[in-house]
Structures are given as C-alpha cells and as structure tokens.
UniProtKB/TrEMBL annotation, chains A, B:
This is fructokinase. Keywords: Aminotransferase, ATP-binding, Carbohydrate metabolism, Kinase, Magnesium, Metal-binding, Nucleotide-binding, Transferase, Zinc. Transmembrane segments: none annotated. Coiled coil: none annotated. It comes from the Bacteria. It comes from Pediococcus pentosaceus (strain ATCC 25745 / CCUG 21536 / LMG 10740 / 183-1w). It catalyses: D-fructose + ATP = D-fructose 6-phosphate + ADP + H(+). Belongs to the ROK (NagC/XylR) family. The keyword Transcription regulation does not apply. Its cofactor is Mg(2+). One of its GO terms (molecular function) is fructokinase activity.
C-alpha cells in the first residue's frame, strides 16, 4: 500500500508519498501560484506517483463540515485566485481514491499526535506561529472541529501595558496573530525572527502573548500537551521564557503536566504536516 | 423507567426524579453544608425515591477522567470539608445503579443540547456567569473533556483601558471570572446584579468582557450556539449589548450564525442542569 499526502500552504504545496507509519518515500515542493498551475503540478505528481489514498491539509479558511455546501473548498482567503476554490472537488475529479480533507494545522496536529511528540497522549494541540498563527486540536485521538475549524490565531489576549504596537491583523486590534506572528515580529524589530538575538527586548513581549495563549488553550481544552512550531519559535531558547510566563499566569490554579513535557517543540520538525497527511490517508482508506 | 438527577452546587444540591424526556416529576433542594450531612440527605432522597440511574453534575474542580485516581472526586475546592471528597464513590456504595458523573456546567450544557435551546445543533457551549464562571462544551452532541474538564472562567482577556478594578480571582490578575462574575460586579457597584439598572456604567464593562469571552469561545470551538446563563446576565437587556460588542470584536473575520440565534439565553432557565442530569442518567443506563 502506498499513501499520499498534500500539505497545501500559501507559499508552497508539498506533495509526498509514503507508508502507513508516516515515513515519507518521496516528496516534491510546488510553488503556490494560481489554482490551475499549482493543481496541474499536483495532478501530475500523483499521476506519476500513484497512491491508494491521499490526506490533504490546506491553508484556509476551508469548508470542513460535510454538510456545508462549501465542504472541500478554500473559502474566503485573500490569496488571489484561491477564494472559493473547490480543492477537494478538483482532486475527486482526478483521482478515484479515498481522500481525507482538513486544515494544514489539523493535519500537522494529527501527525504529531499519531507518531510525533504527542503520540502517547490522547489530547494535544499543535500551534504554529509563523506568517500567521493557526492551531489544530486533537481530542481523544481525533481531530476536533466544530461548526467549522478553529481559528485560534485570533483569540483575544491582554495587551501588555506599554505595548503600543499596532496590531498587524487587518481584522483585530488585539489578537495573538496580530501582535505576535512573524510579520508582527518583523514590523516590531525590522528583522526576521531568526536574526533576532534571544536577549532582544522584543522576545519578552512575544513570549508573553504566546504564554497567555497557552493559558487560554489550557483552560479551554485541557490538553495533555501544547506543541509550538513555526518560524517565530524556531529558537528553542524561547521555550523556557514561555513556560515561565505561563506558570506565572496560570499561577497554580489547576494542575498541569510538568511544563517541560507540556509546552514543547514539534517532534517531527517540519514533517508534522506531511506525516499527518499520510496517516490521514490511511484513516480515509480504513473508512472507505 | 424512572431517572434521577443531582445538580450539586456550592450553595445547594438539587435532587430530582423524572423521565427520559428530561421532564422532572419530583425535586428537592438540600443546603450544601458538610459532605456527611448533605450526602445523607441525598441518600435519603434516592432511597425514598428509587430510580434506575442517576446523572450527577457537580461543582468543581472534579476528576472526570476515568484513568485519574481522583476520578469521581471533588478535588481542590476551597469549600470546607469537600476537598478530596469521593462523591461518586460514595454514591456507588449506596446505590447499585448506573451513574453518570460530570461537572455542573457540563450537565447543564447537555440538557440545553438535548432538549433546550441547542437541541437542533450538534455543537454548543453553555456558560454561566454567576458567583463564578464556568462553561460546558458540547461537541458533536457529546460532552467535551480533555485531560480534565474545561476551566473557561479563567481565560485571559484584554483588560479594558481605564478599568483598574482589582481582579476578584485569587489566582489571576486578569480573567473573565475575576473581572466580570457576580462578586466582581458586586464589588464594582456595591449592589447585586439584579438591582443594577441596565444603563449603569458597569454594564458596558461587564458585557465587554463577556463579548471578548464569546470571541474566544468562537475561535476555539466554532460552536453553533453560545448559551449564557447565571445571575449576572439574568437581565435580558444585556444580550443586545453583548452581541453588539461581539460583532465589533470579531469584525467579520469569520462567518457565524445570526447573532440573535448565536449568543442566547438558556432555553430551560434554571432547569438546564437537572434536565441534563436526567438525560445523562438515561445515557448511563444505555451504556450499562
């Protein structure tokens, strides 16, 4: 059995083939240009690399509820050409195999939950803090969705006294993404996150917002683990700062796992998504 | 078949009997004093009113995870005598019938979800804003728990500029409960919520925090409905204020149901909990 995975991001699509254990046997990267151009390359890949099922995680917002007329679509993205694109419908028209459709962060969360750092616990959250902020929630080993998928990058937090940075979110004067995602870090400092030394005064601000977000994830979902990934926190030295601020904010109100095991980097690095896609392909095959 | 329900609150316990449709046939109220005294009255009630199963919703925090050694316990409550009380174990020792054990707010959420205002949708949240703030989340018609139950009263929000009220939460400088629960409203105004006119300047503050909480519930759980109950919002006039602020904060970022159907008062009034308990008793009986 050969499985396929797509991790569809706003900058690039990764397509891969691999096995039931999430191990990748082949992969390519395709620039995200227009749906016609990008999807033609996707179709070509899986035509020349035939698989038994494909797991797809897409940038969003997307329709994830099978009852929704926009199920399988990328819906309201500002990305030119991709708004109201019937992604799943396109793939169905090309490949008569089981397909699993979810968000990019749900896909990555599933990968970490099944074979990554959260493989031993039933409830975990994968949050990426990069160009944007998104999170996937795994509840009792399943992807959590409500009426639609979560939009946890847009949770409100307490704006730090003295932080007069204008939110970078076009919708919200205050939200995690607007205050602490990569572009916000860039505008605050004039530099990319990876070039900012760990003792830069921007980090106490950014890690504070991330810590507040971890408090809100904790009281909302009571996960066993919160996995943080993405460009902004590629610097591992930020984790102790986040854990310390988290502990101060939670202030012993409820018991949580030891923080070194609770707020953690991804176990699969940049492979969380593709590994999750392969495992979701397997799930689709089982349910077919 | 006769079903039983317990709604165990910090001030009083309500015990009731009723039918599979959630209709109550008999009920009593018992003051919450010591575990021995209160539980003796509970035992007496269900001895004289025999039932086939009991659904229990308790004040917390409680152990809700069957793998937890403290499953069935009220755990760290400051309420004298009730810390580490094995509530479920006590009932099991008295009654050899199926029992369903959850939090008071999960019980109420379940009642509203099954026969109340959320009966037509699979995903809803019941949040009570009274002496404390708590919420129960229903996901795909089931009670949502993680490692433990939610503690949504303690989510962090943005402290309003100029609001220098000292949080009433002993743990958190900023949280929904500390800034907007009944005791906070009381300290802010010197009056009980029900005696404060709707044009009092405290309401724009309280409804703002509640609206922020609704935003965070929306981006976290994507529910079909948010049900607000409890002493602080017994005044129905507050709902339009909450909806208006919610709309301003969400700012069109994602589509939500029409707000009059989305942020709503409880459909069962003060019976959400007991109705939920009866329906959970029925669920326990089915799974037995």
């Amino acid at each position: 059995m050969l499985l396929g995975a797509i991790e569809a991001g706003g900058t690039k699509f990764v397509c891969a083939t691999g096995a039931e254990n999430g191990q990748v046997s082949d992969r390519i990267s395709i620039p995200t240009t227009t749906p016609v151009e990008t999807m033609t390359a996707v179709d070509d890949y899986f035509t020349t690399h035939p698989v038994d099922a494909i797991g797809i995680g897409s940038f969003g917002p997307i329709g994830v509820n099978p009852d929704d007329p926009k199920y399988g679509y990328i819906t309201t993205t500002p990305k030119p050409g991709w708004g109201d694109f019937d992604f799943l419908g396109h793939l169905k028209s090309q490949f008569n195999i089981p397909l699993y459709w979810t968000t990019d962060v749900n896909e990555a969360a599933y990968g970490e939950s099944m074979i990554g750092i959260a493989k031993d616990v039933p409830n975990s959250i994968y949050m990426t803090i990069g160009t944007g902020v998104g999170a996937g929630v795994i509840s009792q080993n399943h992807i959590f969705n409500g009426r639609t998928h979560t939009e946890l990058g847009h949770m409100r937090l307490n704006r730090l006294p003295g932080d007069d940075f204008k939110s970078n979110c076009p919708y919200h004067d205050i939200c995690l993404e607007g205050l602490a995602a990569g572009p916000a870090v860039g505008k605050r400092t004039g530099k990319a996150g990876k070039d900012i030394p760990v003792d830069d005064p921007v980090w106490p601000i950014i890690t504070d917002y991330i810590a507040q977000a971890c408090v809100n994830l904790t009281v909302a979902f009571a996960p066993d683990k919160i996995i943080l990934n993405g460009g902004v926190i590629n610097q591992r030295q930020l984790f102790p700062m986040i854990r310390e601020k988290f502990a101060a904010y939670l202030n012993g109100y409820e018991e949580v796992p030891p923080l070194d095991d609770y707020i953690v980097p991804a176990g699969l690095g940049n492979n969380s998504g593709i590994a999750g896609g392969l495992l979701l392909a397997q799930a689709a095959l089982k349910n077919a």
